[in-house]
Amino acid sequence: MKVGTIGTGFIVDTFLSALNEIVDAECVAIYSRKEETAKPLAEKYQVGTIYTDLEELFSDPTIDFIYVASPNSLHYEHTHRALENGKHVICEKPFTSTVHETESLMELARKNELMLFEGITTIHLPNYQLIKQYVGKLGQIKLVQCNYSQYSSKYDALLRGETPNVFNLEFSGGALADINIYNLHFVLNLFGVPQSVNYAANKHPNGIDTSGVLLMKYPNFIAECVGAKDTRSMNFVLIQGKNGYLHVENGANGCQNVILHLKDKEVRLNSQTTINSLYYELLAFKEIFDNKDFDRCSHLLDYTHSVMEVYEKARKSAGIVFLADNR
C-alpha cells in the first residue's frame, strides 16, 4: 500500500507516523505548493519524492492511495481529481463541505471501482468497539453528553482581525467541522441517525462558528455534543442509562480510557496499545485494501454519507453558509 499525501500540517505528520507502523505500507510522495514546506516531513519520514504540481502527484504510477489533508473546502476537488486519475483515496474529516459533494464522490468511486475512505479516528478505535460491546449493559439510554473543546491559537489570530482557514466560511471551517465532528461520529456510529438536529452556535461577526452545542433527539433519549475552539474544557463523553453510566475520558476523538459504572461497580476498559489514534483507521483501511473488500468500503461510505446529512442539517440550522453551498 503506497501512499501520496496532500498537505503538510500537523495531521499529516501524525498520519505519516502512524503509516510507519503499518506493515507493507509506506508514503512514497508528498505534495505541497512549496517544496520547502514539504522538506521537513520528507526528511523525517524518508520520503523520496516531493511534488509541487498536483497532476504529477496524481499521475505517479507507484501511488495506490492519495491521502487528502488539504483545507476542508478543497477536500472535494482533490479527492475528485485523485479518483479521476485512478487512485484510491483517504480523505480527512469532515469528508466534504456538502452532502452533494459527498454523493458525487461516492458515485465516481463506485463507477471507477476505487476505494474511498473518510479519515475519522473514533469509529476505528479498539476502545470504541469496547463501548459498543458494553453500552447495552446500561439499560435504557436517557442522556448522551460529549464535550471536545480545544482552545485554538488561530482564534487569537481571528480576534486580531485575520481570517485563518479554520475560521473562514470560504474554506468550510468552524468548530462544528473541525472539532465537534468527532462527537457527531461518536454518537451516530453508536445510535444511528436522530429524529431531529439543532445546532446553537457562538458565531464570529464573519459568520463562522467558534463554538457551539449540537442537540440531537432520538425516540427515547437526547444527545448533546459540545465543541469549542474559543475556550477550553474537560473533554469527555458520558452515556447515561437506567442501570448506570459510561464515562469516556479525554473526549470522543481518542477514547483513551473508558470507565463503566454499574451501580456500585466500576469497570475500567482499555485495549488500545498506541497513542497515535490514526494507526487504527489505517490498519482497517489496509485490511480492506488487501482483501479487496469493496462491500466493507461501501458500508463505510454509506455511513459517511449519513453523517454528512446530519452535519449539513446541523450547520444550516445555525445559519452557517459555506461558499461551497452556492456551487
UniProtKB/TrEMBL annotation:
Protein name: Gfo/Idh/MocA family oxidoreductase
Domain (GFO/IDH/MocA-like oxidoreductase): residue spans on this chain: 136-242
InterPro entries for this protein: Gfo/Idh/MocA-like_OxRdtase_N, GFO_IDH_MocA-like_dom, NAD(P)-bd_dom_sf
The Gfo/Idh/MocA-like oxidoreductase N-terminal domain, residue ranges: 1-119
Lineage, opening ranks: Bacteria, Bacillati, Bacillota, Bacilli, Bacillales
Pfam families in alphabetical order: GFO_IDH_MocA, GFO_IDH_MocA_C3
Annotated organism of origin: Terrihalobacillus insolitus
MF-aspect GO terms: nucleotide binding
